Automatic annotation (TrEMBL):
PANTHER family per the UniProt record, alphabetical: CATIONIC AMINO ACID TRANSPORTER 9, CHLOROPLASTIC (PTHR43243:SF45), INNER MEMBRANE TRANSPORTER YGJI-RELATED (PTHR43243)
Lineage of the species this protein comes from: Eukaryota, Viridiplantae, Streptophyta, Embryophyta, Bryophyta
Gene: LOC112291716
Keyword tags: Membrane, Transmembrane, Transmembrane helix
Residue ranges constituting the Cationic amino acid transporter C-terminal domain according to the UniProt record: 290-339
InterPro entries: AA/rel_permease1, CAT_C
Family named by the database record: Belongs to the amino acid-polyamine-organocation (APC) superfamily. Cationic amino acid transporter (CAT) (TC 2.A.3.3) family.
Bilayer-crossing regions: 32-50, 71-96, 116-138, 167-186, 192-213, 234-255, 261-279, 291-311, 317-335
Protein source organism: Physcomitrium patens
Entry GO MF terms: transmembrane transporter activity
Entry protein name: Cationic amino acid transporter C-terminal domain-containing protein
Subcellular location: Membrane
Primary location group: membrane
Annotated GO CC locations: membrane
Tree of life domain: Eukaryota
Membrane topology field: Multi-pass membrane protein
């Protein structure tokens, strides 16, 4: 199905390129840059498929080599296809005539290419099917890992003896997805997914920075030994990243509401000042193999930009995300922290935060 879907997309690009009228691209941003950024934030979920590659590490023979290749190649290929399709469609028909329900099919029907619109409908069905399959695959593996670690009930970690798949987790994921699809429209779900992705990716960036911080020399020098008054370097790094996140969010709000540019400049300067301690007062380890480059600069800039995009979403999306986050926190507070296993193989339980070494994670 993936081959069929990609083939149809390539055919759309090839056939549509002969119908492009470059005058439709003028002006290139008729409503300014703000709607472009807002739209990019809303459709952010269109690029989250690379998560499926990262979550398939358990089934890889050589994940340290294969996962980075799979993530980067899939991301660049998808981005290239998206950009090409957008150029072709907006070049074929003025954007105001595309409509919101089936813009691709409408564009080709406008040009009298009805057979292409039929193929697009077939491709849409293939795309929905593969998306559902990938969603079941990825989310069930996440629940499997959480069940193994004791953060969720153990039945999520149950593996079918015959198929060697997490059946319970798959049934749960499929049921929840069906309920959400039945009671919410695409607009609401896309906003929730986008805001959740932005938040989770920011947390991943923060974890990369915190796990890379080399605290061994600090402990040897006695700087961070307890008891100690004031901030440790680790706590200082946390506060700096929280401040950068807040500034990025406020810059996004100022931009969205048309606030004074002076406020945005001041907030950007504050972000730069908060970045200085992360660059000068911390020592970072470099794991072997593939790892995130330019730490802490790249992860911190990602956090700031993610929070900028976060501010472009409607406040209702923030509320829904807050409700979902509150539920997750309650599950951890009343179940996860008391049942988390410090050693999944031995089943030892300890109400401590789950920790892993940088060498094991290879972040």
């Amino acid at each position: 199905m993936t081959i069929a879907k990609v083939s149809i997309v390539l055919m759309v690009i090839a056939v549509g390129s002969f119908e492009v009228d470059t005058s439709n691209w003028t002006p290139f941003t008729p409503n300014g840059l703000t709607p472009v950024i807002t739209g990019a934030t809303v459709v952010f979920f269109a690029y989250v498929g690379f998560d499926a590659v990262a979550n398939s590490a358990e089934e890889c023979k050589n994940p340290q080599r294969d996962l980075p290749i799979g993530i980067l190649v899939s991301l660049f290929v998808c981005a290239g296809l998206y950009v090409a399709v957008c150029f072709v469609v907006t070049g074929m028909v003025p954007y105001i005539n595309l409509g919101g329900d089936a813009p691709l099919a409408n564009a080709f029907m406008d040009k009298g290419l009805n057979f292409v619109s039929i193929l697009i409908s077939v491709g849409a069905v293939c795309g929905l099917t593969t998306t559902v399959l990938v969603g079941l695959y990825v989310q069930s593996r996440l629940y499997l890992g959480l069940g193994r670690d004791g953060l969720l009930p153990a039945f999520f970690a149950k593996i079918d003896a015959h198929h060697q798949t997490p059946v319970t987790a798959q049934v749960w994921v499929g049921s929840v997805a069906a309920i959400l699809a039945g009671f919410f429209n695409v607009s609401h779900l896309s906003h929730i997914l986008s805001v959740g992705c932005l938040a989770s990716y920011s947390i991943v960036c923060a974890c990369v920075v915190m796990l890379r911080i080399n605290t061994e020399n600090q402990w040897q020098d006695g700087e961070d030994q307890l008891p100690q008054k004031g901030l440790t370097r680790w706590n200082e790094a946390v506060l700096c990243m929280l401040g950068i996140s807040l500034c990025g969010f406020l810059v996004g709000l100022c931009y969205r509401t048309g606030g004074p540019v002076t406020y945005e400049i001041v907030l950007l300067v504050i972000m730069g000042l908060l970045l200085i301690p992360l660059l000068t007062r911390q020592e970072y380890r470099r794991p072997s193999g593939f790892a995130c480059p330019w730490v802490p600069l790249l992860p911190v800039l990602s956090i700031g930009f993610n929070m900028f995009l976060f501010a472009q979403l409607h406040w209702e999306a923030w509320v829904r995300f807050g409700v979902v986050t509150a539920i997750a926190v309650l599950v951890y507070a009343f179940y996860g922290q008391y049942n988390a296993t410090t050693n999944a193989s031995s089943g030892e339980h300890s109400p401590l935060y789950h920790q892993a070494s940088v060498e094991d994670l290879d972040t």
